[in-house]
Design brief:
mainly alpha; disordered N terminus; two-stranded antiparallel ribbon; 77% helix; two-stranded antiparallel sheet; single chain
Length: 305
């Protein structure tokens, strides 16, 4: 109870008891010493935490510097490089990278690995593993490590039942598990193939963008040619307009001169005709008409002959 009361007072730094009985209480001194120790511990803890954080920051900075000094490669001669391939001193022959097997190793008798038989083949020949198994079985019977008790027949029946179940249901269960495994593999491969297809589309788009960027200079030249052609067209159009305006003015002057000449000619002809008509009398017209008639008669008589 006393510790529950004094703990918040000590954590606060000064207590009301120390203020009330400062000159007379011995507990005041104890409390002050405890508070000073707590403060010193807190400061020490803070300093340790700060030191550790500084050390962590320095370690991270050093690791980043180390990583920045490494030139990472992702491909070499069209082959993907794994992280351990960045350092050629790695012995990949004796210590190859781990690869997950898609199928288990081959076995015989449902539980004996094929590698054991191959080991015996190199040492004892083909019959070696079989002789070893049967010899070991006989040795177990002779030394009574394998005891033929009354429940031995149950073991035989259990083994026969297990073998029968494995033979009957094993392929079906295996096909089910292989189907599930193939579905998982297809899902992952579909994700990878889709990612590759998307990356291929993006690369194709980037290549097209680069090709279009190469044609920017030609496009600028074409635009300059179009602008020059437009300026040339406007210049020729204005030249045509100026030519037509000058031609209209010249045609007007020519038409004006022609009209003046026609007017003068017509006026002169009319004046001469009127003057000639005024100078001819009625007797002269009668004589001229008589002469014409005589000429016509002569022409008629000469044609009849």
């Amino acid at each position: 109870m006393f510790t529950k009361i004094t703990r918040p007072l000590i954590s606060g730094g000064t207590s009301p008891l120390s203020l009330a009985f400062r000159p007379l209480s011995i507990s005041n001194l104890l409390l002050q010493n405890a508070s000073a120790k707590a403060k010193s511990l807190k400061t020490d803890d803070k300093s340790l935490v700060e030191k550790k954080s500084d050390e962590k920051v320095l370690r991270v900075e050093d690791s980043l510097k180390d990583l920045s000094s490494i030139k990472w490669r992702t491909e070499h001669n069209g082959k993907r490089l794994w992280p351990h391939d960045q350092w050629p001193e790695r012995d990949l022959v004796n210590y190859p990278p781990y690869k997950l097997q898609e199928a288990p190793n081959a076995v015989r008798w449902y539980c004996v690995p094929e590698s054991w038989f191959k080991f015996f083949y190199e040492k004892t020949g083909v019959t070696g593993p079989y002789m070893f198994f049967y010899g070991l079985l006989v040795y177990g019977f002779s030394k009574e490590y394998i005891v033929l008790w009354y429940d031995f027949t149950e073991y035989l029946i259990l083994a026969a039942a297990v073998i029968t179940v494995v033979k009957k249901l094993g392929p079906t269960v295996g096909d089910v598990f292989r189907g599930w495994h193939q579905e998982e593999v297809d899902r992952y491969t579909s994700v990878v193939s889709n990612s590759k297809a998307m990356a291929g589309k993006m690369l194709h788009g980037y290549e097209e963008s680069l090709e279009r960027a190469k044609g920017v200079g030609k496009l600028g030249d074409a635009r300059k040619d179009i602008v020059h052609m437009a300026l040339e067209t406007a210049y020729r159009e204005r030249m045509r307009q100026m030519y037509e305006a000058v031609k209209r003015r010249l045609d007007y002057q020519v038409a004006l001169q022609n009209a003046r000449k026609d007017f003068e000619r017509t006026n002169m002809i009319n004046w001469i005709t009127s003057e000639v008509k005024k100078s001819i009398t009625a007797k002269q017209e009668q004589d001229a008409l008589q002469v014409c008639l005589n000429q016509l008669r002569q022409m008629a008589s000469s044609s009849s002959r």
